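Risk register update: the risk of archive-format incompatibility is retired. Evidence:
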Amino acid sequence: MKVVNAVFPGPEQVMDFFGAEEDGPFVMVNLLKFHATAQYEDGADATLSGAEAYGRYGAAVSQLIENLGGRIRFSGRVTGLLLGEVDELWDAVALAEYPSLAAFKQMALSPEMHAIEHHRKAGLAGQLNIRVKPGVGF
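Archived output:
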């Protein structure tokens, strides 16, 4: 299995993701890897850690998610690995529930998201976003 962290999806990934059939609520699993220090393009807040910069984004995006009718179900630091093997562990995991794909897209394209995106970019070295449909059997 190949795993590649990224900060932004490529155009093809965006088209595939938002081109999916609308099927109601879902949870986005976020596997997060932070920069050791914040990487703001203007050099600001160079004493912050990447996790602290991302925390600014996280606080604001949580409110955006709640305004859409969603919620943060869980967030926490990764502290170990029991099964499997990766070159480097992620630093944190967050589970965000969205009412619909349309709501997620509305948030992703909103001016409010654009206004906080620089904190996400400054904090993240990379991540995986995995869309999960609750209640679906295997």
